[in-house]
């Protein structure tokens, strides 16, 4: 009996140990999963995320408060943003928090609002720069603190993407708390592409950082397919990316091109990889066994650009950050700062060197492994910032530069940076126009509204400006200063591995979130409405956040009708220049003016992001669309007529709000 009892006890202890072991392991796994991005190897984004995770190791999370406990708080009506009094007392006395206490962090997060430049229009949340990123703060004269007793605002950052400190720090610094996506209480979502279920639940004020289907831009084969279509229609003016062939389908066409051009060099890339993985460079003289392999392997083979512009004998490429606020109207901003990435070995176009990845590939992930790689300390320690980039031998001192450093170098060498930059913007606009059609189709498909165009709306209020996207354009400049598009990253790395990366990327995230316009609930300023509204002189009613965020509610047919009123159509085609801009403005209705007001508000809070489209010469691009949309026509005409300057005119129709502040933030 005693023996049986002993055995039973031993068995129970054994089971208990197993259960505890499993629980411990599960907790560890859970913790790890929270920190690491979930990766699906078949996803086109897989490679980008893998790269991002690798680059972020040296970054430090700022600000003590953790978001996780906020997620655990019970749902309920609007809560005060003040932390429980016990917490305040404990912090004030410098004592540790009690166990079991709701820890909202040592300080409550503060939301700062940015007044509109127009009267009667609601503010947006201002995302200022963290001190640690060392970026010069933007002008804060339109900034107003939100009511401390107002409701909290939330963001959702899912595990599907890498958690960049630049993103998390800016969201926290902006005063937002984290919740799970399923709660739907968030205003800002940072994740992968929204699923149909998610998008259908979006309210008008919710903003997500991806458009459905932007892999049409991010996959090397798909973007080439879209650009090739445009090249076929428009010829030389669309030669913005090196000639490509999608293998194995276009193997015969490439083989013929290779035989026609025996002197050419080629580069083969897998379609959905990044960081230089799997890339090979070779001449037209390909051995039989390699040809056989190429005829079966999935990837893209491209003309290799043999004459890149060199600095100190080294090849480099540019990472340019581009933000699309919406595709219809097409609103594109280019960040004034970006990265220049150098190869670590001096360049040669001799076929004997083609195996050298550190000579021919400029990826950070390839070159950081070289002993010659030098981190950029962002001018820290340099006596004269202007001299920080080049050493006495004319070599770049660091393996990464900022675009500002490149600009200074161009000016010193007598190279025309301005002209190169304009061609680069032209390349960006053409690339984005080439993918607009497939993205529109994805938008409709995701919302289950096949013919709705960009006017398709979700049942919860999702609309054309619910999504925005940050793209990393990789651009190579050749020795004639022509920029060539190499690829577009739809999840560009936002890692802060060096002081330079930290400054540029943290500022970029803050500027993007302020630009796209996160609308706070009215309750955040209802205690002090005068602080966010200029004294109203006109007869216009004050708009609430839902009205401001809802955008243009017209159907596609209605918009086509209105477009015809502004510019005459001939044979179904809008004629780009048959109406004077001033005449067109006189035909603008309230919806048209609303589009211009929103675009101007964005310009006035764009920080370091510079508008690339619509631009005063937008008419040059009108014929690239099968049919230029109403929204695009309106903004083009507004730009041609003078853009933001026309809001200074006293003769505007009564439904146009008065611009009362002229300071850009
Ligand atoms: P990945 O997504 O793997 O980074 P990229 O297309 O950006 O692939 O190419 C990696 C690097 O190879 C680029 O940074 C550039 O230095 C070089 N490269 C790519 N395409 C070309 C090309 N057509 N001509 C010259 N160099 C190229």
UniProtKB/TrEMBL annotation:
One of its GO terms (molecular function) is tubulin binding. Residues 54-71 have a biased composition (Acidic residues). GO terms for cellular component: ciliary basal body. InterPro entries: TTL/TTLL_fam (IPR004344). Keywords: ATP-binding, Ligase, Nucleotide-binding. It catalyses: L-glutamyl-[protein] + L-glutamate + ATP = gamma-L-glutamyl-L-glutamyl-[protein] + ADP + phosphate + H(+). Transmembrane segments: none annotated. Pfam families: TTL (PF03133). GO terms for biological process: microtubule cytoskeleton organization. Residues 33-90 are annotated as: Disordered. PANTHER family: TUBULIN POLYGLUTAMYLASE, TUBULIN POLYGLUTAMYLASE TTLL5. This is Tubulin--tyrosine ligase-like protein 5. It comes from Effrenium voratum. The lineage of its organism: Eukaryota, Sar, Alveolata, Dinophyceae, Suessiales.
């Amino acid at each position: 009996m005693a023996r049986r009892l002993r055995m039973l006890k031993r068995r129970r202890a054994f089971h208990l140990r197993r259960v505890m072991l499993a629980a411990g392991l599960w907790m560890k796994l859970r913790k790890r999963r929270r920190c690491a991005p979930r990766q699906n190897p078949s996803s086109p984004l897989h490679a980008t995320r893998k790269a991002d995770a690798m680059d972020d190791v040296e970054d430090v999370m700022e600000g003590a408060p953790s978001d996780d406990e906020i997620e655990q708080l019970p749902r309920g009506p609007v809560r005060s943003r003040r932390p429980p009094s016990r917490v305040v007392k404990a912090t004030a006395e410098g004592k540790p928090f009690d166990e079991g206490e709701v820890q909202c962090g040592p300080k409550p997060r503060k939301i700062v609002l940015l007044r509109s430049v127009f009267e009667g229009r609601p503010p947006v949340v201002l995302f200022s720069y963290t001190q640690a990123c060392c970026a010069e703060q933007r002008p804060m004269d339109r900034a107003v603190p939100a009511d401390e007793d107002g409701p909290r605002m939330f963001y959702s950052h899912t595990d599907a993407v890498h958690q960049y400190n630049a993103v998390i720090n800016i969201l926290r610094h902006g005063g937002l708390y984290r919740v799970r996506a399923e709660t739907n209480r968030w205003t800002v979502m940072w994740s992968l592409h929204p699923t149909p279920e998610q998008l259908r639940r979006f309210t008008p004020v919710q903003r997500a950082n991806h458009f459905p289907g932007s892999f049409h831009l991010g996959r090397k084969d798909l973007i080439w397919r879209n650009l090739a279509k445009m090249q076929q229609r428009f010829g030389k003016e669309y030669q913005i990316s090196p000639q490509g062939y999608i293998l194995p389908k276009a193997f015969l066409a490439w083989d013929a091109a290779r035989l026609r051009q025996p002197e050419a060099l080629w580069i083969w890339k897998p379609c959905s990889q990044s960081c230089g993985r799997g890339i090979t460079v070779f001449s037209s003289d390909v051995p039989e066994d390699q040809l056989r392999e190429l005829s079966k392997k999935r990837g893209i083979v491209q003309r290799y650009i043999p004459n890149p512009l060199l600095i100190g004998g080294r090849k480099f490429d540019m990472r340019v950050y581009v933000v699309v606020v919406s595709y219809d109207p097409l609103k594109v901003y280019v960040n004034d700062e970006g990265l220049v990435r150098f190869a670590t070995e001096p360049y040669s176009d001799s076929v004997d060197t083609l195996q050298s990845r550190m000579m021919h590939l400029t990826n950070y992930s390839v070159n950081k492994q070289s002993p010659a790689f030098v981190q950029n300390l962002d001018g820290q320690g340099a006596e004269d910032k202007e001299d920080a980039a080049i050493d006495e031998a004319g070599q770049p001192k660091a393996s990464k530069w900022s675009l500002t450093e490149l600009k200074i170098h161009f000016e010193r060498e007598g190279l025309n940076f301005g002209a190169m930059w304009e061609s680069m913007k032209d390349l960006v606009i053409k690339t984005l126009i080439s993918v607009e059609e497939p993205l529109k189709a994805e938008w409709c498909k995701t919302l289950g509204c096949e013919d709705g165009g960009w006017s398709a709306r979700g049942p919860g209020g999702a609309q054309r400006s619910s999504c925005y996207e940050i793209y990393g354009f990789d651009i190579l400049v050749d020795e004639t200063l022509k920029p060539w598009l190499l690829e577009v990253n739809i999840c560009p790395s936002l890692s802060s591995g060096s002081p330079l990366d930290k400054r540029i990327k943290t500022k970029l995230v803050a500027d993007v979130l302020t630009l796209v316009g996160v609308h706070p609930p009215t309750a955040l300023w209802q205690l002090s409405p005068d602080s966010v509204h200029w004294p109203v002189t006109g007869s216009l009613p004050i708009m609430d956040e839902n009205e401001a965020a809802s955008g243009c509610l017209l159907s596609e047919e209605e918009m086509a009708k209105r477009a015809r009123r502004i510019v005459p159509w001939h044979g179904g085609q809008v004629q780009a220049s048959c109406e004077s801009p001033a005449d067109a403005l006189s035909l603008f209705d309230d919806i048209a003016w609303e589009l211009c007001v929103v675009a101007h508000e964005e310009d006035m809070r764009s920080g370091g992001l510079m508008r690339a489209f619509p631009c005063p010469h937008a008419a040059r691009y009108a014929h690239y669309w099968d049919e230029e949309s109403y929204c695009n026509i309106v903004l083009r005409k507004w730009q041609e007529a003078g853009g933001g300057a026309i809001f200074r005119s006293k003769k505007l129709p009564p439904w146009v709000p008065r611009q009362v502040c002229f300071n850009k933030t």
